[in-house]
Specification:
By secondary structure, the chain is of the alpha/beta class. It contains 5 helices and 7 strands; from the N terminus they run E-E-H-E-E-H-E-H-E-H-E-H. It is globular, with a radius of gyration of 16 Å. It binds guanosine-5'-diphosphate (GDP).
Length: 208
Amino acid sequence: MNNLLTLIKTVYEINQLEELAVPQIILAGRSNVGKSSLINSLAGQKKLAKVSATPGKTRSLNYYEVIPHGYYIVDLPGYGYARCSKTERAKWGKLIDKYLQGNNYIAAAAVLLDSRLSPQKNDLEMISYFTRCNVPILPIMTKADKTKQKDRVKVQNQWQDILKVKPICTSSKSGMNRTKLWKLLDLTAMPELADQIEPTGLEESPEE
Ligand code: GDP
């Protein structure tokens, strides 16, 4: 059965944050990494999340409920966008700090990484920020269709050396590893689902 995603809440300001006693997986990544496209691909919809023509514009936290399991995927605003002002960046930091503070329901941060690039400074900064907050990292490589397998594996190995976890390669364009990613997200958010979810092999699955 396919999971469904629905946007249930959008938060722009700190005072809109409230404690939600539901497992949450953060979705984070540099602007333009393909985060909105991945949300749309997971949802099987074209326009659930806006695919940005102007990167870095979305500054809100978007809460998506995963149906039928009931956990949330929380989409954080893209980081490291050069044209974003210092004030805006500071506001971004405060909102995310506040969201993380005392939130015991965060299962992991799914950090999106561009398959075409070796580890970048702002990705590493974001990862150490989550690690300092004791949030486990679930690395996801995006835009795999834009790379040759050989080059992708090289980047995957670089990340594995750093994180001690092998990133999953995905493509929103071809649908590569879509089902496998859903299973990973389900099990990360709700380990108790292990009995209900078929085990997947470690090999990459191509288009679906
Ligand atoms: P966001 O800023 O992280 O939300 O990134 P978007 O989802 O808006 O994507 C940024 C750009 O990359 C857009 O032009 C997308 O069409 C493109 N893109 C995103 N994912 C993929 C992918 O898997 N394959 C390819 N070829 N292009 C992608």
